From TrEMBL:
Taxonomic source organism: Punica granatum
GO CC, any one term: membrane
Stated family: Belongs to the major facilitator superfamily. Sugar transporter (TC 2.A.1.1) family.
InterPro entries named in the record: MFS_dom, MFS_STP/MST-like_plant, MFS_sugar_transport-like, MFS_trans_sf, STP/PLT_plant, Sugar/inositol_transpt, Sugar_transporter_CS
Keyword Methyltransferase: no
Annotated protein name in UniProt: Major facilitator superfamily (MFS) profile domain-containing protein
Subcellular location: Membrane
Membrane association type: Multi-pass membrane protein
Major facilitator superfamily (MFS) profile domain: residues covered: 1-432
Single GO term (MF): monosaccharide transmembrane transporter activity
Length: 474
């Protein structure tokens, strides 16, 4: 994690000497020690690259398939890790982050679609959240590595940044083992390969019904598909587009990346030493992993909306109390009493837990399952791009916001949590257990608000229903 590296003195001395000196000034403002545009750019540049890469990935994913897109992502990750580990100056450092951002853009475009398209509907939520689970495991491992390498005076940060090469290699090797999704194969005219792959991943020979449904969904998509981005602008595509993108805005404006990116920085601001702050980040990373496991076992049982709404109350309370404690006990130049600093760490864990079993994984799951085939790549591109844009904005602005808003920044994010709760309660339909190609009929057309966006001319019957009607007439 970049936040752990940016708290290391050896890293700051080499690339951000001004921040290093400010950090060790006794009377420096607690909230402004790390306020530096280039330090923020080191973190945020990854997400700026991911926005551009997401567009290229959406086209690449449609033309060549999900599997090659995942392979491309792993190569970008590997190149970025090598550049950052070998960085001699700020330009090499940021170039490495840009390659990592390209990997994020390609990976986030392909992997959730891959999982949604190969998973049976009744297990789709849990399997898709496995993607988020592995991300949280990666965050935990990164925090543990940062804690260990922080003891190495000169090269610890190189080991931390270069460690990203290990999961990149694993992803690259794994990408040659996995199969392409049946939907992608059929979409590109490889019907026999699609049928063979469907039989392989289902473990049974009799998959004719599901194959026909995918085939007819593909044919139906081709009838209306001159340009998937143009189709996304149709009135009947607005509900999915609005919900898919606004989920990404809300996911980032919970303030989660304030915690995950800058946890060591925040904990040092509250008076923890470098090692203690990194250890606290390890604890929050462990909570993140455990809570994501909770989501895997509950999302297909209780549904998406229940988890989203419960977590809103949990995160709102934690965020508000944190802000109150910091407002009262952390002034510009004092050190927060240890008891209250520990309470803040506990509240951070409560906040991370709520996010990790709800808005974190579901922010990726829901957009991957709500778009019909004719707009799926384009729609998911907009969702991924919005996520990367909001992440970039938060990462680029947070340290400056912390300096100027101080503890008020937590109340800023609390207000967003209230808005997202209202959105989930009134405007988000439940998608649990609904096959992707039936989503319009069974979710959007039955929703009290979004049903007005559908009519017979713009929203043809799902492929499996059209196929049934044809069979009946015959």
């Amino acid at each position: 994690m970049a936040g752990g590296v940016t708290s290391m003195d050896s890293f700051l001395m080499k690339f951000f000497h001004e921040v290093y000196e400010r950090k060790h000034e006794v009377k420096e403002n607690n909230y402004c020690k790390y306020d530096n545009e280039y330090l923020q750019l080191f973190t945020s540049s990854l997400y700026l690259a991911a926005i551009v890469a997401s567009f290229a990935a959406s086209l690449f994913c449609k033309r060549f398939g999900r599997k090659p897109t995942i392979q491309a992502a792993s190569i970008f990750f590997l190149l970025g890790a090598i550049l950052d580990a070998a960085a001699l100056n700020i330009y090499m450092l940021i170039a490495g982050r840009l390659f990592l951002g390209a990997g994020v853009g390609f990976g986030n475009q392909a992997v959730p679609l891959f999982i949604s398209e190969i998973a049976p509907a009744r297990y789709r939520g849990g399997l898709n959240i496995c993607f988020q689970l592995l991300i949280t495991v990666g965050i935990l491992v990164a925090n543990v590595i940062n804690y260990g390498t922080s003891q190495l005076q000169e090269y610890g940060w190189r080991i931390s940044l270069g460690g990203a090469a290990v999961p990149a290699i694993i992803l690259l090797v794994g990408s040659f083992i996995i199969v392409e999704t049946p939907t992608s194969l059929i979409e590109r005219g490889k019907l026999e390969a699609g049928l063979k792959t469907l039989r392989r991943i289902r473990g049974v020979h009799d998959v004719d019904r599901e194959f026909e449904e995918i085939l007819h969904a593909t044919e139906l998509a081709k009838k209306v598909e001159t340009n998937s981005f143009r189709n996304l602008m149709k009135r009947s595509s607005r509900p999915q587009l609005i919900c898919g993108t606004i989920l990404q805005v809300f996911q980032q404006f919970t303030g989660i990346n304030v915690i995950m990116f800058y946890a060591p920085v925040l904990f040092q601001t509250m008076g923890f030493g470098s090692s203690a702050s990194l250890l606290s980040a390890v604890v929050t990373g462990l909570v993140n992993v455990i809570s994501t496991l909770v989501a895997i076992f509950t999302v297909d049982r209780f549904g998406r909306r229940v988890l989203l709404l419960e977590s809103v109350f949990q995160m709102l309370i934690a965020q508000s109390v944190m802000g109150g404690i910091l407002m009262k006990f952390l002034q510009s130049t004092n050190e927060m009493p240890q008891l209250y600093a520990k309470i803040v760490v506990l509240l951070v864990c409560v906040f991370v837990a709520g996010f990790a079993w709800s808005w974190g994984p579901l922010g990726w799951l829901i957009p991957s399952e709500i778009f019909p085939l004719e707009t799926r790549n384009a729609g998911f591109f907009f969702a991924v791009s919005m996520n990367m844009l909001c992440t970039f904005l938060i990462a680029q602005a947070f340290l400056s916001m912390l300096c100027r808003m101080r503890s008020g920044i937590f109340f800023f994010f609390s207000a967003w949590i209230v808005l997202m709760g209202l959105f989930a309660g009134f405007f988000l339909p439940e998608t649990k257990g609904i096959p992707i190609d039936e989503m319009n009929e069974r979710a959007w057309k039955k929703h009290w608000f979004w049903k007005r966006y559908f009519d017979e001319e713009e929203s043809p019957a799902p492929a499996h229903l059209e196929w049934k009607d044809t069979m009946t007439r015959n």
